[in-house]
Write a sequence for this structure.
């Protein structure tokens, strides 16, 4: 009964928000591309859409999923105005020979909430135990380098672990028959494991080495778009900030709004994930979206030292807080 009431209230909210919106014909069209399937990294966007925060800023925002291109490629080419990416992806994109003109304009999470996970029964107690095990990899160069570096810190040799490319296959369908451990996101797969009653050994990247405490995910935009449309960018970030601030204040309402927009999602997983994620959007930062220079510089230096970047990252061009409503 409580859930039905919540949905009825949400419908009422949509009606009231629509009444307060500027005429659609007078709004600026914006395309926002996600990085993957909708999940609780994206909740603030759906709140901003549902509560009319975009519309109140005079924006007509379409949220899309990437098809045959990545979010970085779509934003760089101008086919999307904003998108969701990851700091390591942006670092690669800006340092290749044919660099992509993209910039981080907000951090969705203040700290890296990902890490390596295995079943409790796997016998993996520390990264030293990765030797002789099968690792399910996404397949990115930085992933392999991080795994190699962490194993070396524990006196282990990455050549003694079998790396299997599993792309984005579901962790729970792979272990233990096909792989022994993988890189997961605590706020999604970690929560799902608890709901399934599956006990994990989990090694947080940021706790293993603070070099890996980079911003992930982030919101990106195109350099030229930002230079030509600073006021629109500020309006966009103001609406997004309102959405994520609401998610921090009321995780249950946030989950209800997310589920109304993504009804195919697992309700129990979304609600439990949202409780976790709502504590991570701002965390110990002064305000939503805030990013620090050193948190970009340290991982980029490490990647360059590992020979994974074609050139050093110019951090001053890689991110900005200037479009955030609470910029300091």
């Amino acid at each position: 009964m409580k859930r039905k009431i919540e949905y009825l209230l949400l419908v009422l909210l949509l009606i009231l928000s629509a009444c307060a919106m500027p005429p659609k014909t007078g709004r600026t069209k914006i395309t926002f591309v996600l990085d993957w399937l909708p999940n609780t990294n994206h909740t603030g966007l759906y709140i901003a859409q549902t509560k009319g925060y975009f519309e109140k800023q005079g924006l007509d925002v379409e949220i899309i999923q990437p098809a045959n291109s990545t979010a970085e490629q779509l934003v760089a080419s101008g086919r999307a105005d904003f998108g969701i990416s990851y700091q390591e992806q942006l670092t690669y994109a800006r340092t290749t020979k044919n660099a992509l003109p993209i910039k981080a304009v907000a951090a969705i999470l203040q700290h890296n909430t990902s890490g390596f996970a295995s079943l409790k029964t796997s016998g993996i107690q520390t990264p030293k135990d990765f030797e002789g095990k099968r690792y399910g990899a996404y397949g990115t160069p930085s992933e392999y380098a991080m795994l190699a570096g962490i194993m070396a810190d524990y006196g282990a040799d990455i050549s003694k672990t079998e790396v299997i490319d599993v792309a984005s296959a579901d962790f729970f369908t792979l272990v233990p028959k096909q792989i022994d451990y993988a890189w997961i996101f605590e706020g999604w797969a970690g929560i799902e494991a608890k709901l399934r009653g599956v006990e994990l050994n989990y090694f947080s990247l940021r706790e293993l080495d603070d070099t890996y405490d980079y911003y992930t995910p982030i919101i990106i935009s195109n350099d030229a778009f930002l230079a030509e449309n600073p006021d629109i960018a500020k309006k966009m970030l103001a609406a997004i900030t309102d959405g994520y601030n609401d998610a921090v204040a009321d995780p249950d309402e946030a989950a209800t709004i997310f589920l109304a927009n993504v009804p195919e999602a697992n309700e129990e997983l979304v609600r439990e994930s949202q409780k976790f994620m709502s504590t991570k959007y701002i965390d110990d930062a002064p305000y939503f979206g805030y990013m620090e220079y050193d948190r970009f510089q340290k991982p980029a230096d490490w990647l360059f030292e590992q020979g994974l970047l074609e050139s050093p990252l110019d951090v001053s061009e890689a991110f900005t807080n200037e479009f955030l409503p609470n910029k300091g």
The CA atoms of residues 13 and 51 lie 7 Å apart.
